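INTERNAL TRANSFER SHEET
From: sequence group
To: structure group
Subject: Transposase

Please process the attached sequence and return the structure record in the designated field. Keep the field labels unchanged so the import script can parse them.
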Amino acid sequence: MASRKRIYDAEFREGAVRIVTETGKPIPDVAEDLGIHPGTLHSWVSRARRNGSPSSDRPVVEPSPGGRLRESERAELERLRAEAREKDKRIRELEMERDVCKRFVALWVK
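Return from structure group:
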């Protein structure tokens, strides 16, 4: 009898892991309730504990808005962002001036 490899979507895996972690039920009991192999659920749970997600082998990096930055680093980041905005604005102005000059030359040559 050939066994078929079943593919579970990320939402199902995360839900199964959540059941194990939040209820404290043993993995074999939850696996039996869900109709999956206990080894499969065990690997999802261990991967989630290690990486933060049962769907990925890479650690999940939580986006924390400035949570790990020191005050000086935050100030530097804000200064650099403001500088980038000013440069983008200047680039747009220069592009508009260039386009006007191109049109002027095109009309002058005719």
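Handover comment: Residues 20 and 26 are 7 Å apart (CA to CA). The chain has a mean pLDDT of 84.
Transfer complete.
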